[in-house]
Amino acid sequence: MRFHVRITVSLPPGLDPAERDRLLAAELARGRELHAAGTIVDIWRLPGRLANVGIWEAADATELHGLIASLPLFPYLVADVEALARHPITGG
Amino acid sequence: MRFHVRITVSLPPGLDPAERDRLLAAELARGRELHAAGTIVDIWRLPGRLANVGIWEAADATELHGLIASLPLFPYLVADVEALARHPITGG
Amino acid sequence: MRFHVRITVSLPPGLDPAERDRLLAAELARGRELHAAGTIVDIWRLPGRLANVGIWEAADATELHGLIASLPLFPYLVADVEALARHPITGG
Amino acid sequence: MRFHVRITVSLPPGLDPAERDRLLAAELARGRELHAAGTIVDIWRLPGRLANVGIWEAADATELHGLIASLPLFPYLVADVEALARHPITGG
Amino acid sequence: MRFHVRITVSLPPGLDPAERDRLLAAELARGRELHAAGTIVDIWRLPGRLANVGIWEAADATELHGLIASLPLFPYLVADVEALARHPITGG
Amino acid sequence: MRFHVRITVSLPPGLDPAERDRLLAAELARGRELHAAGTIVDIWRLPGRLANVGIWEAADATELHGLIASLPLFPYLVADVEALARHPITGG
Amino acid sequence: MRFHVRITVSLPPGLDPAERDRLLAAELARGRELHAAGTIVDIWRLPGRLANVGIWEAADATELHGLIASLPLFPYLVADVEALARHPITGG
Amino acid sequence: MRFHVRITVSLPPGLDPAERDRLLAAELARGRELHAAGTIVDIWRLPGRLANVGIWEAADATELHGLIASLPLFPYLVADVEALARHPITGG
Amino acid sequence: MRFHVRITVSLPPGLDPAERDRLLAAELARGRELHAAGTIVDIWRLPGRLANVGIWEAADATELHGLIASLPLFPYLVADVEALARHPITGG
Amino acid sequence: MRFHVRITVSLPPGLDPAERDRLLAAELARGRELHAAGTIVDIWRLPGRLANVGIWEAADATELHGLIASLPLFPYLVADVEALARHPITGG
After folding, report:
1. Interface contact G48, partner H, CB < 8 A
2. Per-window interface: C 57-76 vs D, CB < 8 A
């Protein structure tokens, strides 16, 4: 099943720059794993902030939560999740 | 360039049912044309309301506006448009 | 899969009272069918307005949309849908 | 009487990871007690964040407040409470 | 049990003035009945609009919904209901 | 004159527990004084959070501000104040 | 006592232009009466819409409501009222 | 003085198509006059809806209101106005 | 030109009380200077919080920004500014 | 392509004043570079807060994000980006 996931990251203002870089690199690596596995079907950055919108594939909301919670930035992000239905334009 | 377009339709409460059906059919036909032309790259219905979220391809916001305005339901909809940037997860 | 569905009804102010009664009766009958079928697992009224919150069971968001769209009041309602994950309290 | 309770947790960004784990474990244990006692009738996680939605049973709002305040995460959460009325679909 | 009820009335713009007067008079009469019966414990008008805030007494949310729905203006109002807990200041 | 006062408290996440207890006790003591003096006419807790709604009596908004500012938790709270008018239901 | 009153007017879209002109003229005349009487102490238009913000003088919120309700546009406006306290800058 | 003006148009759903075309043409003509006169310094359409954002020049807010009110669509629009200050980047 | 300025102050929760007192005293002194100079034409406190609403006089938004930025609490406040137009009630 | 960019800066309350001055100076210098390069076509300060609104030129949203992320204040700001379409008033 497909989900629309909008992720907004709020890093604490006093975060150490090295820790910030380490977190962002770990996040990117985990994101690439999820993309390679077909979980993150597509993803775009929203310009001007630490935020993205993606189409995720998961069996259900329980699996999806586990996948989002596996992101290294999980303690610093909020994900808005919407379940997606097929649209008749695409033959659904 | 890719755009994230969220469309919410508000049909007037007193709309004649036959006109409603005609409008929805015309909307679907135009949507399929835009999908076949590669303008609507992907689209999903948001369950429980007349609303959808799609990824659109257009040269710029001027062309995008013309394409959205070509929808038969344009007088009855609001489209929230966000310009999308490549995300490094996808190699951007 | 379980969904959290919050439905708010907005009947047009000039609606004929007989038509209003007919619509509400049809809505109740369809709701009871969905409850008997196990689609509406549980449902409560939010006091003071035409609104309810329910737990729905559907294979996915596409099926759920079809079920909500089958309600006689569908042209007059907005449904806010949230996909639900199991909570570890309940053994999930 | 039944209540609809939506709980959103905001842990402070600088929280020590061990304290975080201890708090989440204590919260889960207390939640299971309340579930076993019939206070938390049902509960689901909202995917993508530290949030849940539950149906709680309490004599009144005074008792309900005491039960929510007994959660170890109470200093870090906000609970949105709605009193629920029976819906005629369920024979009410 | 006590409830905090905030009622906002939206009369349709084209409402006939005589019908408007009749509705407001019927609303006032029904409100006085509820006040005399101890259901509306206290009520104040919010200045500058057709709105009020009141403290209502009802066995539970189901009874409360029936009482609010008995108001002649029910088709034209939205009631925001909050269940109230005793505050320790008042000895609770 | 009567005022509707909704108070929401946000204690800083890192507050020392002993200081937290001391502040809440001082707040309760001051609240009881204001209640005994007839300033806080009635007050209820909103379940699930550090928040309350009350009916306050003060000569005017200037006096009311001084009374709210006398609360020990004043640096940590926001009060939403609404001036109340008599409602014709209560003979006004 | 002083009140801060923000008034937003929403004329129905289908309003007859002559009736619109008549209403606006009556509103202006009544506003000038209230200004001459010292009720509307000061008032400014918010540019770009039918809206204004004013400082009103009234004994209390009950009197204020009556004064606002005396405006010919009362059925088509919403007034947001805030009770004002003296500020120490002005010697209060 | 420069103002930031965001205009959102809401045409009534039942508007006659010929009247709609006439209004939009008159609006465009008036807009071109204001652009030629230097009042509308720059203006862009927000894609996907009847809305625009512009930089306007006017002596003050009183003159600005008169200019916006001269638009044929004024009864059907809301303009959000923000006064602009020079930014030091541009030498201000 | 007149501006409507609503100022909300958010002092950091951990602020040293002596520093808090010093800042508030400096703010009051600067406010009195601006009032004596005719910049702050009138100002009221909004009861129940550190907030005020005032009518300011400045040549334009650039000058106004400089005046607001001269407040000692500027790092801790947000000012909502609205340009004011004359209202025909006051002869404008 | 043109973008409408609204930037709001939130400096952490405990920021060292010297670091604050250094950051603001670096931000101004980088802003002037972007202005000289034609990236920031025009920009204005919103009075009363650390915020601005600007018209930016970039090939697409990906390039725009890189440009905004090059600002020294990027960790402390949120940018709201809107893609702009030509308006027929300007001959588009």
Report:
1. yes
2. none
